[in-house]
What does this fold into?
Amino acid sequence: MILDGNQPDALQQAAAALGRGELLGLPTETVYGLAADADNDAAVAQIFAVKGRPSNHPLIVHVADIDTVTRYAREVPLFAQQLMETFWPGPLTLILPRLPQAAKASTGGQDSVGLRCPSHPVAHALLLACQQLAAPVWGVAAPSANQFGRVSPTTAAHVAAEFGDALLVLDGGACEVGIESTIVDCTRGVPVLLRPGAISRDDIEQTCGMRPLSREDMPDHTPRASGTLLAHYAPSAKVRLMPAKQIQTALEVLGPDAANIAIYSRQRMHTSARGVLLQRMPDEPNAAAQELFAALRAFDDAKVKLIWVELPPESADWEGVRDRLERAAAA
It folds into this structure.
């Protein structure tokens, strides 16, 4: 069932559902999440079961404000505090040392926890409403609301199509960012970028004065984190990344017989084949990120077998889009 997330009654209904240990489709500025009370082990177990997600693959816990972090983290380094103060609410997840009894089922058995304060007004209003329950819900675990490894949802309709009408979904419109949050590990004395997103390496360095390392720079004791498996974010169709010139050459070789192929590129492609679906990728990285998952879902809806995508630029501002496409292509 889809409810208008801007209506106070809908927010109260959704908060009450979380308080009862039920699941909820939740809009955030990044993607829609499949939400549950982060401290209710039985509720969190439902997330893993419904998604088909490995139980050791941790979830991100969403909180209403910086003050709530102290309910989950036993330590907050100075650089992490600086990142929170600058980018929260927003699309940034910080991995912090976990308090022993906090969100145990949400963290995949690790002694760290991923925390984020979403900026979407519906998500923020819901988190505040959860704090007002007779038995308050202080944190909401919410991975993307899709089957594990598949394309993330960016509209309420995507969530309903994934899980059916039995799931309560708050509709907050199309997601503004469109790809999952940047994840920074803050457990090892320096920031380590585990997953790129809308907040870039440059943004992080300018804020805390420390250039984030890559996980390859510090391979030992790297926490497991959401969305960091080699193959992820994959549509049913096979994704292949290619330079624009290679895509155009392949179309010319196939000629009018090309079929069941979608092309997603910044460069304009030309083909006489009626069985090829052409779609322009935005030239601006934030716009490309915002529509990426919706485009992949639309290609699946069109029943194509192959999706050929022009390689994104190597620049830092395209890192999040490139990361999602590389993982989709690896599936």
The first helix runs from residue 8 to 19.
